[in-house]
């Protein structure tokens, strides 16, 4: 088996992939998205420096849900030896299927330390990091880029990373200066991909099956981030399955809560879930009152009670089956 095999095999399945999103793609949400058919899922980014300094938080972020297959842990850092050492710790601890280097984060706290999207300005350093990381672990190393930092230079950077041993590159079709404004430029991503031998996954603004199919037809893998928040079933609709009914969506929220309770414990779970709960409301009837009620929920038991009272379940005379929280 060569190092590239994991990504090549997974891409051949033709599934969309859950994008890494700090604050959202924790173990419970990844579990849910995998259940709906996300090809693999990438963790929130973990600081290599924090890992090397022995900070437990970094290790917690990289941890897999029990029996989570195909775990890809994303790491960020600006120094080749530190990223390599951090990557080694993650590998020894969790045996992930691959490690991914963050080269897209536009946040000043990260870019100020020559990390994240700042690496787009320094292809040599980025290549040295990928090289060091690939030497340090026996699993594939990938990187997630933007089109550039403030000007577009993704091809130059991608060629350097490919040469350094990257097994796959993901490109978010915006520069870091754009942050999340404007539209992701998938044509630009495809143009870069056409000049590389490693596979490329595109990222940015995918919310429909038509987009998924159009971008696959460009020869790209497809990553889905914000579109999957509050609607993790997107992954299965891209494969032709029907969208869940409103009643099924309500049960699914409770399933998410169940995973979160197992992962964080009851008290912490409701805090971690809050941001996601409001997004689920958008896909349900009576969204406005439901959103308002969800902001007031402070325990998982209250959450179950609230969702059981929802008009959709009352109309169908159904009570959520999956979970009773105590
Ligand atoms: C809240 C949030 C957190 C993110 N965190 C990360 C991250 O930790 N690592 C990363 O590579 N990209 C991160 N991203 C970027 C996404 O992975 C993705 O490339 C971007 O959101 C565009 O795709 P989308 O339109 O499908 O969301 C984040 C995006 C958002 C909105």
Concise structural overview:
With 326 residues, the chain is α/β, with parallel strands linked by helices.
Give an account of the 3D structure.
By secondary structure, this protein is α/β, with parallel strands linked by helices. It has two domains: 233 residues, Aldolase class I (TIM Barrel, Alpha-Beta Barrel), CATH 3.20.20.70; 71 residues. It contains 16 helices and eight strands. The chain has an eight-stranded parallel beta sheet with strand order 1-8-7-6-5-4-3-2. Strand 3, helix 5 and strand 4 form a beta-alpha-beta unit. The longest helix is centred in the C-terminal third of the chain and has 19 residues. The protein is globular and about 60 Å long. The relative contact order is 0.11. The model has no long low-confidence stretch (mean pLDDT 94). The structure holds flavin mononucleotide. Flavin mononucleotide binds next to strand 2.
Please supply descriptive tags for the structure shown above.
326 residues; alpha/beta; TIM Barrel; 47% helix; 2 domains
Proportion of residues in β-strands = 5-15%
CATH class of the largest domain: Alpha Beta
Spatial arrangement of strands, main beta sheet? 1-8-7-6-5-4-3-2
Give the radius of gyration. 20 Å
Question: How far apart are the termini?
Answer: 47 Å
Low-confidence stretches: none
Total separate domains: 2
The pLDDT mean sits at 94
Shape: globular
Write the CATH fold name of the largest domain: TIM Barrel
């Amino acid at each position: 088996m060569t190092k590239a095999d994991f990504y090549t095999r997974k891409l051949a399945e033709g599934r969309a992939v859950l994008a890494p999103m700090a604050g959202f793609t924790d173990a419970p949400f990844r579990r849910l998205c995998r259940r709906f058919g996300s090809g693999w899922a990438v963790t929130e980014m973990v600081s290599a420096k924090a890992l090397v300094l022995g900070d437990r938080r970094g290790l917690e972020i990289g941890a897999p849900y029990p029996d989570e297959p195909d775990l890809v842990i994303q790491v960020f850092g600006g120094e080749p030896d530190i990223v390599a050492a951090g990557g080694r710790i993650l590998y020894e601890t969790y045996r992930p299927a691959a490690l991914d280097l963050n080269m897209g984060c536009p946040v000043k706290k990260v870019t100020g330390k020559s990390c994240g999207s700042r690496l787009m300005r320094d292809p040599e350093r980025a290549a040295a990091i990928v090289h060091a990381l690939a030497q340090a672990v026996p699993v594939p190393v990938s990187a997630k880029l933007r089109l550039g930092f403030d000007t577009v230079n993704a091809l130059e950077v991608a060629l350097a990373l490919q040469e350094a041993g990257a097994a796959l590159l993901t490109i978010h079709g915006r520069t870091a200066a754009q942050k999340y404004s404007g539209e992701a430029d998938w044509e630009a991503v495809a143009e870069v991909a056409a000049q590389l031998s490693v596979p490329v996954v595109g990222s940015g603004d995918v919310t429909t099956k038509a987009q998924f199919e159009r971008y696959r037809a460009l020869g790209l893998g497809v990553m889905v981030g914000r579109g999957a928040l509050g609607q993790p079933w997107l992954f299965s609709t891209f494969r032709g399955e029907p969208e869940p009914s409103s009643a099924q969506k309500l049960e699914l929220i409770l399933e998410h809560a169940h995973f979160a309770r197992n992962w964080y414990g009851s008290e912490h779970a409701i805090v971690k879930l809050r941001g996601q709960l409001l997004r689920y409301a958008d896909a349900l009837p009576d969204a406005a009152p439901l959103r308002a009620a969800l902001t007031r929920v402070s325990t998982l038991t209250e959450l179950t009670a609230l969702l059981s009272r929802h008009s959709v379940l009352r109309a169908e005379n159904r009570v959520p089956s999956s979970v009773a929280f105590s």
